[in-house]
Amino acid sequence: MNKDQVKGVGEQVKGKINEVVGKATDDPAQEAKGDMQQVAGKIQKGAGDVHEDLKDSVRKNP
Q1: 18, 25, 35, 46 - which has most CB atoms within 10 Å?
Q2: Could you read off the pLDDT of 43-61 as tens digits, one per residue?
Q3: pLDDT tops 80 at residue 13
Q4: Integer distance in angstroms from the first to the last C-alpha of the chain?
């Protein structure tokens, strides 16, 4: 696992928390912020996944 994968998952978790708090407090702005954080986290994790796949591919086929 690389730092982008870890940070991406962390951002997804923070986003989910913000989304739930926004729903509980009836705050659409916080709910939207949570949704955006989750999307950003998924993108960052995806970039980390691609990086890991590329690194693994290079190791297998030098």
Answers
A1: 18
A2: 999 999 999 999 999 999 8
A3: yes
A4: 21
Residues 56, 37: Cα–Cα separation, whole Å = 28
Contact 47, 10 (CB under 8 A): no
| 34 close to 22: Cβ distance less than 8 angstroms | yes
Tokens of 57: 């591919």
C-beta neighbour count of 1 within 10 angstroms: 10
What is the pLDDT at residue 62? 77
For residue 10, count CB atoms less than 10 angstroms from its CB and return exposed for 0-12, middle for 13-18, buried for 19 or more.
Answer: middle
Residue 31 pLDDT grade (very low, low, confident, very high; cuts 50, 70, 90):
very high
In the chain, how long is the greatest CA-to-CA distance? 54
Q: What single letter denotes the amino acid at residue 19?
A: E
